Amino acid sequence: MPETTPKKIDLRRREMPKQAPEIRSHNFNEVALGYTPELAVEEARRCLQCKKPLCVPTCPVQVSIPEFIQAIAQGDFAQGARILKQKNALPSVCGRVCPQEDQCEKTCALIKRGGQIAIGRLERFLGDWEAAQSHVEVPDLHTPSGKKVAIVGGGPAGLTAAADLVKYGHRVTILEALHKMGGVLSYGIPEFRLPKRIVDGEIDYLRRLGVEMKVDYVVGKTRTVDRLLEEFDACFISTGAGLPWFMEMPGNNLNGVYSANEYLTRINLMKGFLYPQTPTPVKMHKQVAVLGGGNVAMDCARTALRLGAEATILYRRSRAELPARLEEIENAEEEGVEFRFLTLPVHNLGDENSRVCALECIRMELGDADESGRRSPIPIKGSNFTLPFDCVIHAIGNSPNPLIPATTPGIAIGKKGNILIDEQTGKTSRERVWAGGDIATGAATVILAMGSGRKAANSIHQYLTKPGAW
Q1: Number of domains the chain is built from
Q2: pLDDT (tens digit, 9 = 90+) per residue, 61-79?
Q3: Distance from CA of residue 121 to its chain's centroid?
């Protein structure tokens, strides 16, 4: 038999075009511009098509990654989108905001040889390609079961659970407290990172599947979970982590001190960045301090920069310990966000009008590693100094929304206010009630919330079709 020439391995990852820093720092248009079809095919053809792919088990929603990539490589984008949406109802969202570098891409077989497939960018390409078509395919649904499921909260976990449950043939209603669906996708992530037309398109797809959606519906106030269970056969709680944290220090009640939740909600959901074209007034600050080092801190600082402010991130550890995605850190640095590392704010200082005007800070040094694996920050005695700011944004995390736990008797709650669940099924201590996403885990990633939504949807379906399995 003639010898076959082994396929030459292409280790060159195709970069995605994006706006230049000096341009994008002055607008709210999307920074990353996405792959062209030609770039997507080139990138997809680099995939080794492993017989036992390691990327799939590390995807929280278990997307058939090699299969959709192979479809792209063959130029069959419609088939790729079909494969992708079997497991992921929000591909354009996930392709933009999920930390693929710490999940599916981290286990890519090419890493051992110094390469890596851009799985997230290919996912985004397919989602965007399908959305741009005149007809978006809707899959066949199961025979109607006659069962009804209430989803409390229209964020990533709730949307994912709704998509799976409606495909199973159940009647699904999402009840959202805000005036717009999407949860953190709508209120928390800036337009330049996740355009709201993308979120709206993904949500419209769920409507076409048959998911009913109600906004301005505050479960715990409008109706309790117990009341919902009188009408629905099952309930999935996915109300997220909407209770912001503040650093404990004097002056947090001064004007100009925000939680990241409030600041980003005003800008994103209420479109404050378009003022005066929109009715949401946002004070145009000149010197903005953002406290924290995660993705939310990057979002706040980059938003403030686009609104004309000088933006500074204050972080008590060094750059090496920043928890944000490297891509977001690099984007912030390129755009002109200033970073002050090993700096801990200890006191908001106000003027005669009770407006914040400065921050007293203390310098830090790094000690031994703590429970998180990062070196512990230690204050340097007598190193206090003051920096002028007219706005301080706390972006240090959030707790689970307390409204549902407080109004649902008998539901087990953890020490941090989270609803306790079975990690494999999402079941709570209450019969016919499941939970998932940040309300159960605390603040986490979009894709982890989606994964919990899928697990709960599968468990709910098993319960509704096999009642004895509870």
Answers
A1: 3
A2: 999 999 999 999 999 999 9
A3: 16
